[in-house]
Design a protein that fits this description.
Blueprint (H helix, E strand, L loop, with lengths): L2 H17 E4 L4 E5 L6 E3 L11 E4 L8 E5 L4 E3 L3 E5 L5 E5 L6 E3 L2 E3 L5 E3 L3 H15 L3 H15 L2 H14 L1 H25 L3 H24 L10 H10 L1 H5 L1 H7 L17 H16 L12 H12 L4 H4 L23 E2 L5 E2 L6
Antiparallel strand pairs: 1-4, 2-3, 2-5, 6-7, 7-8, 9-10, 10-11, 12-13
Bound molecules: zinc ion.
């Protein structure tokens, strides 16, 4: 490798590191710019660092804004609190053993369980909320949860928050796109063709100029805002001198927020309807079809919240819970088919199978 190639590889690596975020393992990220057509990103769940998982924000130009959503991490059950750790893993903590304590953005729940939340404010809010839940009766907890669920499923405010965030960083993103193409495209080509020359030096000068403008735009867009960016001036200095910080300055503006993240299903309208419906079915299956579903008269709490939301959004039951067409007993949760003699799904922890219509 020549010096130029090594330098380019180092820049690419630093840039990709800047695109990484540590989020809760069951978090969802949407990326886009307009009023609809946003796409989804998920963290790499197999890797757990602390109590979060890494997520790669969309790195390629044109630069997209990002918005975070979080499914219901804390759900009150009759004698325990269910805590979602990843998409497939959750723990139950008995109400008596629960001792919530916020430490920066991490919420410690008992001796071993901790959850990382998007901000310190949110960790403190959940500490307070869970302490309140502890003192309530099971019925009161249920109605409090349903109220909370309804606020996180507000489709209008979720779409508004995402599009406003994209609007706020528009000029930062346009300049970042130019900056990225200049840094990895123009300069690399010039260096490849001309080697160490005045033209390459001039191109590097343009790069620094773009960074200075980016730094100024960053200071301007975070000046009067409701968002308090930690070490804002130091960060602006970094943006002026480090290309990778300059290219991803808009992420800091978009993702630094103390607001409660919406539920991923609140992004109806922002996402493609087909993609949204697929996620809606998945959330419904996991909330509705739990062991014992065939005998229980009432819906599990999360399924009740989702059903209310689907009714409010005018979505027919056959859309979010399509009837099975299989001729064999089928697991309603994961869709696996079984022989006629089997009655529960072994993969889903004993969920009763749905028998085919006679
Ligand atoms: Zn199953």
């Amino acid at each position: 490798m020549t010096d130029g190639q090594t330098l380019l590889a180092v820049f690419v690596l630093l840039y990709l590191i800047e695109c990484l975020r540590l989020v809760h393992a069951s978090a969802w990220m949407a990326s886009g710019a307009g009023k609809s057509g946003w796409s989804l990103l998920r963290p790499w769940m197999r890797l757990q660092i602390g109590s979060g998982s890494p997520l790669l924000l969309s790195p390629l130009p044109p630069m997209q804004a990002h918005a975070l959503a979080l499914p219901w991490v804390f759900v009150p059950h009759h004698d325990s609190l269910r805590v979602q750790l990843t998409d497939r893993m959750n723990v139950h903590i008995a109400w008596g053993k629960l001792a919530p304590r916020a430490e920066e953005a991490t919420l410690h729940l008992d001796v071993t369980t901790r959850v990382s939340l998007p901000s310190k404010t949110l960790a403190e809010l959940w500490q307070q909320r869970l302490t309140e839940w502890q003192g309530l009766t099971p019925d009161q907890r249920q109605s409090t949860f349903l109220k909370y669920a309804r606020t996180t499923l507000d489709t209008k405010s979720a779409a508004k928050a995402a599009t406003e965030a994209a609007q706020r960083t528009r000029s930062l993103r346009v300049l970042a796109t130019i900056h990225c193409l200049w840094c990895f495209g123009v300069i690399s080509v010039l260096y490849y063709r001309l080697g160490d020359s005045v033209a390459v030096l001039a191109a590097a000068g343009v790069l620094v100029l773009l960074q200075f403008i980016q730094s100024w735009l960053f200071l301007r867009s975070t000046q009067k805002n409701h968002i308090a960016i930690p070490h804002r001036r130091w960060r602006a200095l970094g943006i002026a001198f480090l290309p990778q910080l300059a290219m991803r300055a808009f992420d800091v503006v978009n993702l630094t927020t103390d607001a409660e993240p919406p539920h991923p299903l609140a992004w109806r309208g922002l996402l493609d309807e087909k993609c949204w419906l697929k996620n809606a079915r998945q959330f419904w299956r996991e909330a509705r079809y739990v062991p014992g579903w065939a005998q229980n008269d009432s819906l599990p709490l999360e399924a009740e919240a989702l059903q209310k939301f689907f009714r409010h959004e005018d979505i027919a039951e056959e859309d979010y819970d399509p009837p099975a067409a299989a001729k064999l007993p089928t697991c309603p949760r994961c869709g696996a088919e079984y022989q006629s003699s089997i009655t529960v799904c072994s993969d889903c922890g004993g969920v009763e199978l749905r028998q085919p219509a006679a």
